[in-house]
Amino acid sequence: KQEVTQIPAALSVPEGENLVLNCSFTDSAIYNLQWFRQDPGKGLTSLLLIQSSQREQTSGRLNASLDKSSGRSTLYIAASQPGDSATYLCAVKNTGFQKLVFGTGTRLLVSP
Amino acid sequence: DTGVSQNPRHKITKRGQNVTFRCDPISEHNRLYWYRQTLGQGPEFLTYFQNEAQLEKSRLLSDRFSAERPKGSFSTLEIQRTEQGDSAMYLCASSPRGLAGGTDTQYFGPGTRLTVL
To answer: Which of A7, A72, B23, B53 could form a disulfide with B92 if both were Cys (CB 3.0 to 4.6 A apart)?
Structure first.
Protein backbone atom coordinates (compact mmCIF):
# COMPACT_ATOMS: atom_id res chain seq x y z
CA LYS A 1 0.00 0.00 0.00
CA GLN A 2 1.42 3.38 -1.04
CA GLU A 3 2.02 5.81 1.80
CA VAL A 4 3.10 9.42 1.31
CA THR A 5 4.75 11.50 4.03
CA GLN A 6 5.51 15.20 3.98
CA ILE A 7 8.02 16.96 6.20
CA PRO A 8 7.84 19.45 7.78
CA ALA A 9 4.15 19.65 8.67
CA ALA A 10 4.43 23.41 9.03
CA LEU A 11 7.02 25.99 8.10
CA SER A 12 7.28 29.70 8.82
CA VAL A 13 9.86 31.83 7.00
CA PRO A 14 10.51 35.52 6.36
CA GLU A 15 9.94 36.88 2.89
CA GLY A 16 12.79 36.36 0.45
CA GLU A 17 14.07 33.06 1.82
CA ASN A 18 14.61 30.03 -0.36
CA LEU A 19 12.97 26.92 1.03
CA VAL A 20 12.62 23.20 0.46
CA LEU A 21 9.58 21.02 1.10
CA ASN A 22 10.03 17.28 1.32
CA CYS A 23 7.88 14.37 0.21
CA SER A 24 8.62 10.67 0.59
CA PHE A 25 6.72 7.62 -0.65
CA THR A 26 7.00 3.96 0.23
CA ASP A 27 6.31 2.25 -3.12
CA SER A 28 8.71 3.27 -5.89
CA ALA A 29 6.47 1.84 -8.66
CA ILE A 30 5.04 5.26 -9.40
CA TYR A 31 3.79 6.57 -12.72
CA ASN A 32 4.08 10.24 -11.79
CA LEU A 33 4.22 12.64 -8.86
CA GLN A 34 2.31 15.89 -8.62
CA TRP A 35 2.73 18.92 -6.34
CA PHE A 36 -0.37 20.97 -5.48
CA ARG A 37 -1.09 24.16 -3.64
CA GLN A 38 -4.22 24.57 -1.49
CA ASP A 39 -5.42 27.85 -0.02
CA PRO A 40 -7.62 27.67 3.11
CA GLY A 41 -11.09 26.33 2.34
CA LYS A 42 -10.35 26.06 -1.36
CA GLY A 43 -9.66 23.38 -3.94
CA LEU A 44 -6.26 22.27 -5.18
CA THR A 45 -4.13 24.02 -7.79
CA SER A 46 -1.64 21.88 -9.69
CA LEU A 47 1.87 23.30 -9.57
CA LEU A 48 4.13 20.71 -11.18
CA LEU A 49 3.88 17.14 -12.45
CA ILE A 50 6.94 14.92 -12.79
CA GLN A 51 6.77 11.71 -14.80
CA SER A 52 8.57 8.70 -13.32
CA SER A 53 11.19 8.93 -16.07
CA GLN A 54 12.00 12.55 -15.25
CA ARG A 55 14.33 13.98 -12.62
CA GLU A 56 12.92 17.48 -12.25
CA GLN A 57 10.44 20.06 -13.47
CA THR A 58 10.59 23.83 -13.21
CA SER A 59 7.95 26.53 -13.31
CA GLY A 60 8.96 30.07 -12.47
CA ARG A 61 10.30 30.16 -8.91
CA LEU A 62 9.34 26.52 -8.33
CA ASN A 63 11.52 23.50 -8.96
CA ALA A 64 10.49 19.95 -8.17
CA SER A 65 12.87 17.02 -8.18
CA LEU A 66 12.21 13.29 -8.11
CA ASP A 67 14.43 10.43 -6.95
CA LYS A 68 12.26 7.44 -7.63
CA SER A 69 14.69 4.82 -6.35
CA SER A 70 14.92 6.43 -2.92
CA GLY A 71 11.23 7.36 -2.82
CA ARG A 72 11.75 11.09 -2.45
CA SER A 73 10.71 14.35 -4.04
CA THR A 74 11.50 17.92 -3.08
CA LEU A 75 9.78 21.17 -3.95
CA TYR A 76 12.15 24.13 -3.98
CA ILE A 77 10.66 27.62 -3.74
CA ALA A 78 13.04 30.46 -4.54
CA ALA A 79 12.73 33.97 -3.11
CA SER A 80 9.55 33.23 -1.16
CA GLN A 81 6.75 35.81 -1.06
CA PRO A 82 3.77 36.30 1.30
CA GLY A 83 1.52 35.18 -1.55
CA ASP A 84 3.19 31.76 -1.39
CA SER A 85 1.52 31.15 1.99
CA ALA A 86 -0.64 28.05 1.56
CA THR A 87 -0.62 24.30 2.15
CA TYR A 88 1.51 22.35 -0.29
CA LEU A 89 0.47 18.78 -1.05
CA CYS A 90 2.44 16.03 -2.72
CA ALA A 91 0.57 13.20 -4.50
CA VAL A 92 1.73 10.08 -6.30
CA LYS A 93 0.04 7.98 -8.92
CA ASN A 94 1.07 4.34 -9.00
CA THR A 95 1.54 2.45 -12.24
CA GLY A 96 -1.69 0.69 -13.17
CA PHE A 97 -3.95 2.93 -11.12
CA GLN A 98 -5.63 6.27 -11.75
CA LYS A 99 -6.03 7.50 -8.19
CA LEU A 100 -3.67 9.92 -6.50
CA VAL A 101 -2.34 9.11 -3.04
CA PHE A 102 -1.74 12.32 -1.09
CA GLY A 103 0.48 13.30 1.78
CA THR A 104 -0.91 15.37 4.65
CA GLY A 105 0.73 18.53 3.36
CA THR A 106 3.11 21.23 4.55
CA ARG A 107 1.53 24.47 5.80
CA LEU A 108 3.74 27.34 4.69
CA LEU A 109 3.59 30.85 6.12
CA VAL A 110 5.75 33.54 4.54
CA SER A 111 5.81 36.71 6.62
CA PRO A 112 6.51 40.16 5.15
CA ASP B 1 -14.64 26.66 -20.02
CA THR B 2 -12.72 27.88 -17.01
CA GLY B 3 -12.28 24.70 -15.02
CA VAL B 4 -13.97 22.06 -12.92
CA SER B 5 -17.13 23.31 -11.20
CA GLN B 6 -18.89 21.85 -8.20
CA ASN B 7 -22.30 22.56 -6.72
CA PRO B 8 -23.30 23.35 -4.11
CA ARG B 9 -20.22 24.89 -2.55
CA HIS B 10 -21.57 24.39 0.96
CA LYS B 11 -24.16 22.01 2.33
CA ILE B 12 -25.44 21.77 5.89
CA THR B 13 -27.71 18.86 6.66
CA LYS B 14 -29.08 16.95 9.61
CA ARG B 15 -27.92 13.47 10.42
CA GLY B 16 -29.94 10.87 8.55
CA GLN B 17 -30.75 13.05 5.54
CA ASN B 18 -29.63 12.31 1.99
CA VAL B 19 -27.43 14.74 0.07
CA THR B 20 -26.32 14.93 -3.56
CA PHE B 21 -23.38 16.83 -5.01
CA ARG B 22 -22.71 17.64 -8.64
CA CYS B 23 -19.42 17.95 -10.53
CA ASP B 24 -18.97 19.37 -14.02
CA PRO B 25 -15.53 18.48 -15.36
CA ILE B 26 -13.48 20.41 -17.89
CA SER B 27 -15.10 19.79 -21.26
CA GLU B 28 -13.56 16.92 -23.22
CA HIS B 29 -11.93 15.49 -20.11
CA ASN B 30 -13.05 11.89 -20.12
CA ARG B 31 -11.65 10.99 -16.68
CA LEU B 32 -13.39 12.15 -13.50
CA TYR B 33 -12.42 11.55 -9.87
CA TRP B 34 -14.00 12.08 -6.47
CA TYR B 35 -11.93 12.63 -3.32
CA ARG B 36 -12.79 13.43 0.29
CA GLN B 37 -10.70 15.69 2.53
CA THR B 38 -11.06 16.11 6.27
CA LEU B 39 -9.50 18.92 8.26
CA GLY B 40 -5.71 18.76 8.39
CA GLN B 41 -5.48 15.77 6.07
CA GLY B 42 -4.70 15.27 2.42
CA PRO B 43 -7.50 14.25 0.05
CA GLU B 44 -8.47 10.56 0.02
CA PHE B 45 -9.57 8.86 -3.18
CA LEU B 46 -13.19 7.75 -3.39
CA THR B 47 -13.90 6.74 -6.99
CA TYR B 48 -12.91 7.20 -10.64
CA PHE B 49 -14.82 7.25 -13.93
CA GLN B 50 -13.57 6.91 -17.45
CA ASN B 51 -16.42 8.25 -19.56
CA GLU B 52 -19.53 6.72 -17.97
CA ALA B 53 -17.80 3.64 -16.57
CA GLN B 54 -16.89 3.57 -12.86
CA LEU B 55 -13.53 1.79 -12.95
CA GLU B 56 -12.05 2.26 -9.47
CA LYS B 57 -13.78 2.46 -6.14
CA SER B 58 -12.22 2.90 -2.71
CA ARG B 59 -13.16 0.85 0.34
CA LEU B 60 -13.99 4.24 1.87
CA LEU B 61 -17.06 4.30 -0.37
CA SER B 62 -19.51 2.51 1.88
CA ASP B 63 -22.94 1.28 0.78
CA ARG B 64 -24.35 4.69 1.70
CA PHE B 65 -22.29 6.36 -1.03
CA SER B 66 -23.09 6.16 -4.72
CA ALA B 67 -21.62 7.98 -7.67
CA GLU B 68 -22.83 8.21 -11.23
CA ARG B 69 -21.73 9.71 -14.51
CA PRO B 70 -24.64 8.79 -16.76
CA LYS B 71 -23.60 10.40 -20.03
CA GLY B 72 -19.89 10.63 -19.48
CA SER B 73 -20.09 14.35 -18.76
CA PHE B 74 -21.15 15.61 -15.30
CA SER B 75 -21.12 13.38 -12.23
CA THR B 76 -23.16 13.17 -9.04
CA LEU B 77 -22.14 11.84 -5.64
CA GLU B 78 -24.97 10.89 -3.31
CA ILE B 79 -24.66 10.14 0.39
CA GLN B 80 -27.64 8.43 1.98
CA ARG B 81 -28.46 8.53 5.70
CA THR B 82 -25.67 10.99 6.43
CA GLU B 83 -23.60 10.62 9.60
CA GLN B 84 -21.53 13.21 11.44
CA GLY B 85 -18.39 11.42 10.26
CA ASP B 86 -19.34 12.29 6.67
CA SER B 87 -18.56 15.96 7.38
CA ALA B 88 -15.71 16.82 5.02
CA MET B 89 -14.77 18.63 1.83
CA TYR B 90 -15.73 16.61 -1.24
CA LEU B 91 -13.45 17.34 -4.15
CA CYS B 92 -13.92 16.50 -7.80
CA ALA B 93 -11.14 16.40 -10.37
CA SER B 94 -10.89 15.69 -14.08
CA SER B 95 -8.12 14.83 -16.50
CA PRO B 96 -7.81 14.19 -20.21
CA ARG B 97 -7.11 10.69 -21.38
CA GLY B 98 -3.36 10.35 -21.25
CA LEU B 99 -1.53 10.07 -24.53
CA ALA B 100 1.60 7.95 -24.80
CA GLY B 101 4.37 10.02 -23.28
CA GLY B 102 1.93 12.75 -22.36
CA THR B 103 0.89 14.04 -18.96
CA ASP B 104 -2.40 13.43 -17.18
CA THR B 105 -2.57 16.23 -14.67
CA GLN B 106 -5.66 16.10 -12.49
CA TYR B 107 -7.45 19.46 -12.28
CA PHE B 108 -9.48 19.99 -9.15
CA GLY B 109 -12.70 21.87 -8.54
CA PRO B 110 -13.33 24.18 -5.55
CA GLY B 111 -15.02 21.41 -3.56
CA THR B 112 -18.30 21.02 -1.70
CA ARG B 113 -18.04 21.42 2.05
CA LEU B 114 -20.51 19.16 3.85
CA THR B 115 -21.47 19.70 7.47
CA VAL B 116 -23.65 17.07 9.12
CA LEU B 117 -25.31 18.26 12.34
So the answer is: B23
